[in-house]
Amino acid sequence: MTIGQAVLGLAAVVAVLTVIPGLDTTLVLRAVLVRGRRLAFATAFGVGAGALVWGAAAAVGAAALLAASELAYRVVTLAGAAYMVHLGVSMIVKSARRHQISVDHAPTTPASP
Question: Global pTM?
């Protein structure tokens, strides 16, 4: 494989990944559909701020530390996974509670004689 072929392969993968919406796009779309435009702007700002913090951390060497230390990488990976599980479980619980409330307070139709 030549360098030109490698660059073209990388460009193709990057183009596909750029077109496919990621979790941040899904999060912003969910915010606008469920909570409205104001929260969606705040969510988009948070996603952008997070990307900036991540870029700054990588620039000062956090990425190098994680690459050098397998223990540090595992700790960060497991902490991130635990946080994602927490978010998922809390969303399921909130959804179930909301569904339970709507079922409990659903209007009943009178029985016909």
Answer: 0.48
